[in-house]
Amino acid sequence: MLDPHPIETHADPYALPSDPGPSARTLRRVAIGVAIVALIVVVFGVTSRISAVDKLHDVSTESAIPTVSVVVPKLDSSSGSLTLPGNIQALNSAPIYARTNGYVRRWLVDIGDKVKTGQVLAILDAPDVDQQLAQAKADYETARANQNLAVTTSRRWTELLAKDAVSHQEADEKRGDLAAKVALSNAALANVRRLQAEQGFTKLTAPFAGVVTSRSAQIGALVVSGNAAAQPLFTVSDVSKMRIYVRVPQNASASVAPGIAANLSLPEFPNRTFPATMTRSAQSVDAQSGAVLIELQAANPDGALKPGAYAQVTFNSLHGQSSGQSLPGSAILYGNNGPSVAVVDSQGRVTVKPVTIGRDEGAKVIIATGLAPTDRVIDSPPDAIRSGDQVRVQQAAGNAH
Question: DSSP letters along 110-170, please?
Answer without folding.
Answer: -TT-EE-TT-EEEEEE-HHHHHHHHHHHHHHHHHHHHHHHHHHHHHHHHHHHHTTSS-HHH
